Amino acid sequence: MNKIWIIAVRELKSFFDSLTAYILIVVFLALSGFFTWISGSDIFFIGQATLQPFFSVAYWTLFFFIPALTMRMLAEENKSGTIELLLTKAVTDWQVILGKFLACLMLIGIALLLTLPYYISVWAMGPIDHGAVWCGYLGLILMSMTYISIGLFASSITSNQIVAFLLSLFIGVFFLIIFNVLSSDFTGTIGEILSYMSLSTHFDSISRGVVDSKDVIFFLSITVFGLTLAETSLSKRNIVD
């Protein structure tokens, strides 16, 4: 666990050293702030104390930001050859994957923590469903874990960052949009399976304040599966090398 933490801290520092973290956080706060407080579908337009406008925009913003964050995590190291140097320092493939996963998750966590003033401000405006708010944040964290695992897998199979970014988006589109669209075209068991495979189905349920074990299990299962694929890809590259 110590080695995983060391890798995570190193990666997190590299985000801030390269300005990646600052750009992501500033743009994320700017977009979420605009759609939460200023746009035509903001809190004042709705007329009630709720953070649903924020959760709605964060849902889409993270979909694009996380692939941009993960695209360099393994692809750049594969291209430069530093991944081989890292793996010779008595660390396993899993420790590398989990360390990078934790670094990305911590950065997303920092970005979400900086939105807590939104929560406090809305709370001051009127009665707010605290359970729904915290469930909304939980949904964003679980969804981010899923996106990060997909992004790391995409980054592990190529040495080109742009390819990793586009591949991550392509895979994410299936879980975010396509499965949801297809589920409306099918009935019975197939329709239920397609609906279950949609991220929006589970996120919407959690963001409404209902934490169902099947929703949590879904996010965790996709996360573990994505990380496993990334570790497998990394292991195969090492064998070939």
What does this structure look like?
- The mean pLDDT is 84.
- It contains 13 helices and no strands.
- The chain has one domain (2-240).
- The protein is 81% helix and 0% strand.
- α12 (199-207) packs across α13.
- The chain is globular.
- It starts with a helix and ends with a helix.
- It is mainly alpha-helical and 241 residues long.
- The protein has helices spanning 2-17, 20-37, 43-46, 52-70, 75-80, 82-87, 93-113, 116-125, 130-156, 161-183, 188-196, 199-207, 213-240.
Key features of this structure:
241 residues, mainly alpha
Explain briefly what this protein structure is.
Helix content is 81%, strand content 0%.
Count of individual beta strands: 0
Note the gap between the termini. Answer: 27 Å
The radius of gyration is: 19 Å
Which structural class do you get from the secondary structure elements? mainly alpha
**Percent range for β-strand residues:** under 5%
Please state the overall shape, judged from the principal axes of the Cα atoms. globular
Mean pLDDT: 84
Count of domains: 1
Helix content: over 70%
Question: What is the count of DSSP helices, taking H or I runs of 4+ residues?
Answer: 13
List the helices and strands and how they pair.
Layout: H1 2-17, H2 20-37, H3 43-46, H4 52-70, H5 75-80, H6 82-87, H7 93-113, H8 116-125, H9 130-156, H10 161-183, H11 188-196, H12 199-207, H13 213-240
Helix pairs in contact: 1-7, 2-4, 2-7, 4-9, 4-10, 7-9, 7-13, 9-10, 9-12, 9-13, 10-11, 12-13
